[in-house]
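Human:
Take a look at this sequence-structure pair and walk me through the tokens.
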Amino acid sequence: MSAFCVASSRPDLLDAALLRPGRLDRLLFCDFPAQHERVDILTVLSRKLPLASDVDLDAIASVTEGFSGADLQALLSDAQLAAVHELLESGDAYKPGKMPVISDNLLKSVASRARPSVSEAEKQRLYGIYSQFLDARKSVAAQSRDTKGKRATLA
């Protein structure tokens, strides 16, 4: 018995032969992160960033519904870049000890302009693919139960 694993955020691009019933042993659906999961993701991703003490990651998580982990990473990267530009524009960039810092206002401003990379229509399409895959697996399981203990002849 061999194990085969596929990880994809784009099941629509997988070869149809791979998705036929009986090919994969397990199906694990990883949905877009809920608000508390986005807080956790933002917390981990921002650990090494220069965040001001007033940054409220809970507030950022609440305005990023539908964002993936990659979208949240991009948001933080954009905020870090904006902090660098802010420091350069202030003229303080060359003062000793001055470093770019991501303030709460800056992060909220960047978040207000950010959009999730996957549209709602695309999400619904991907959910449909997942649903079809589940239905096919249920159908195979039912067929398997119906034929248990019966003899079959290949002709």
